[in-house]
Amino acid sequence: MDWATIFENGLKAGIRPEAAYFALAAIGLNIHFGYTGLLNFGQAGFMAMGAYGLAIPVFAYGWPWWIGVFFGLLAAVLFAVLLGVPTLRLRADYLAIVTIAAAEIIRFIFRATDLREITGGSNGINGFSSGFFDLNPFSGTINIGPFDFTAREMWVMIVGWGLVLIGIGLTYLMIESPWGRVLKAVREDEDAARALGKNAYSMKMQSLIIGGLFGALAGMILALSQGSVQPSPTDLGPPKTFFAYAALILGGTGRLWGPVIGSIMFIALLAFTDNLLRQAQAADYIPEEIITGTEVGVIRFVLLGVGLMILMLYRPQGLFGDKREMAFDV
Amino acid sequence: MSDGGSQAAVSSDEKPASTPGSAKPDAILLVDGIRRSFGGLVAVDVDHLEFQRNRITALIGPNGAGKTTFFNLITGFDTPDAGTWTYDGRDMGSLPAHEVALNGMVRTFQLTKALSRLTVMENMKLGAQQQRGENLFRSFNHRGWKRQEAEIEARADALLERFKMDHMRDEFAGTLSGGQRKLLEMARALMTEPAIIMLDEPMAGVNPALTQSLLGHVKELRDEGRTVIFVEHDMDVVRDISDWVVVMAEGRIIAEGTHEEIGANTQVIDAYLGRHHDSTLTIDDDNPFLDQPDGSSSESAESQD
């Protein structure tokens, strides 16, 4: 077994665009769930808004790509308002139900055959990203330490992680302010916040919009890194939302760097176990009767799930959480 | 803070009439025809009620009298079926809860709502009104609200010291004891600088030693010029601090007056103990509870007699 390659591939995955867009999505969920207590199960819907908002103006109307960025963000705001108006006055669990349903409805609308001219139907949209890659200052293969990246990958990484850093900076400024204090008060007890003259409904709406904008940015990085937008469950379906949640919980909810570190570790661990299992199989440490090659992709999720369970048992606050916060019932 | 002071304060004005819904000199809160029913149960049905400015008014009544519902209604946490109420001449009927608080009418809760995963200091700062940094767009510019934040923190520190909570300043509120949470909630409400403070059972579950200091704090509130309305079950507490007592039963105001008057009011005693609490249990023809609809069982009752 080639341990060097296993570790190398794991680490490399942790900095590739996939980790960056998970980090963005998880930053959004951290604002929703970690700071405001909103159970948004439809982050994939916000990602779809970003991805399709970016791709549709180029694909269907031939507009420049940066107009797509504007449309993607605008669509996320509208989606947040649409979800928030009926549900934010209700109990928290209603938001969870409505968001997961709305995100799926959005995905099915995007893949509808009747909209093929605009959304590409079930084939999705390809070839909308050339405007973005025209700005790429890199060419050939870029070498960072032991890792090789293509120029395209490098460009998406720079933009993606740049957005992550800007996102963390903005989150810090927002959360470490009186505004962030009111947000946390709403998370702890809405009625108490109201009794002190804080408009809890407005705070939740603001949170839903801001977190949704991060979701849209994640969707754009996802679309750019793949060069295509697909309305498939694995790309923009519920699994994306729940992987982002897993990453957030791994890192620590309600912590500034929790979603970023969590995403890097989540993606790195997936790649690590994948490489480990494949190599172990190739070296006949694991006989073909127990795990076949095609099963590796599933088994790594099983292992990761077990890992998360162990984490929850021994470190429920996540890697970055504050243990004191778990000491009393909330 | 002393009883002498309170007596002097009350006697400086004309004493209001001791009838339900009586007019008060300088009333700060006027409630008219407020009604709330849950299905067939009428929880609150108050024709008219006035609260006098700068007084401690106790709202008492047996369990299920509708005291907390009444609190919820006038603070915007619940919507009445009918009724109007004005605070300082302003109609408050359609205001949501947070705007009621912004207008200077702040409440606490029967089940204390400490914000567990915020520190005591953060809890306190939350009470301050008109914070620049609570606007999303201004929150980014930390220099824009730092000075106000420092002022708020100084005020919070002073209040914590007054409530003898300063040693808990940086602890999570979730680690406080029940009594300390009551103190924190009251101190936090004071951060809003309310004109009326409404306390829902402020002494429930607080140990007797702490009760004394809480009572002192409540009297201080009045001496600062605030109006206090509180719900309480403990009659010793009511006797000790209230200038005026309002009695509710089955959603209605059944009596008003000073605590001496209320203590002698037979209607109030009946409401608490039942109308027949002092009559011996005998079977007679007048007893409506034993009157049977059909003649036969009534006869059998007589024959037993």
Structure characteristics:
heterodimer; A: 330 residues; mainly alpha; ABC transporter involved in vitamin B12 uptake, BtuC; two-stranded antiparallel ribbon; 15 helices; B: 305 residues; alpha/beta; Rossmann fold; 3 domains; 6-stranded mixed beta sheet; 12 helices; 20% strand; disordered C terminus
Quaternary structure classification: heterodimer
Helix count, DSSP H or I runs of 4 or more residues of chain A: 15
The largest β sheet of chain B comes out as:
6 strands, mixed
* Alpha carbon gyration radius of chain A: 20 Å
Number of strands of chain B: 10
Per CATH, the architecture of chain A is Orthogonal Bundle
CATH class categorisation of the largest domain in chain B: Alpha Beta
User: End-to-end span of chain B in angstroms?
Assistant: 60 Å
Plain-language structure description:
The complex is a heterodimer of chains A (330) and B (305). Chain A is mostly helical. Chain A has one domain: ABC transporter involved in vitamin B12 uptake, BtuC, CATH 1.10.3470. Chain A has 15 helices and 4 strands. In chain A, strands 1-4 form a two-stranded antiparallel sheet. In chain A, strand 2 and strand 3 (147-150) form a beta hairpin. The longest helix of chain A has 27 residues, at 200-226. Chain A is globular, with a radius of gyration of 20 Å. With 305 residues, chain B is α/β, with parallel strands linked by helices. Chain B folds into 3 domains: 1-113 and 181-274, P-loop containing nucleotide triphosphate hydrolases (Rossmann fold, 3-Layer(aba) Sandwich), CATH 3.40.50; 115-175, no CATH class; 280-305, no CATH class. Helices cover 39% and strands 20% of the residues of chain B. Chain B is built from 12 helices and 10 strands. In chain B, strands 6-7-8-3-9-10 form a 6-stranded mixed β-sheet, sandwiched between helices. In chain B, strands 2-1-4-5 form a 4-stranded antiparallel β-sheet, covered by helices on one side. In chain B, a hairpin with a 2-residue loop joins strand 4 and strand 5. The radius of gyration of chain B is 23 Å and the shape is globular. Chain B starts with a helix and ends with a helix. The model of chain B is unreliable at 1-12 and 295-305 (pLDDT under 50). Chain A binds chain B through residues 170, 173-174, 176-182, 184-185, 187-189, 191-200, 206, 210, 254, 324-325, 327-330, and chain B through 75-77, 96-99, 101-102, 106-109, 113-118, 122, 125-127, 129, 131-136, 139-140, 142, 145, 149, 172, 174-175, 188-189, 191-192.
